[in-house]
Amino acid sequence: MFDASRRRLIVFLGGALCLAPAAAGKVAPSPAPQAPAQVLGQIVRSSTASIGGVLVPGGGTLLSGDTLSTSAGGGALVKFSRAGQVELEENSSVSFSGTPAHVVARITRGTAVVQTSDQESLAVETPACAMHSAAPGGAVFSVTVSSPASASITARKGSVSLTETASGKAHLLAAGSTSACPNITSGAGPEEGKLAPGERAGQAPPAAGPAAGGSSHTGLLLVVLGVGAAAGVGAALAGGHGGGGGGPASPSAP
Question: C or N: which end of the chain has fewer Cβ atoms within 10 Å?
Answer without folding.
Answer: C
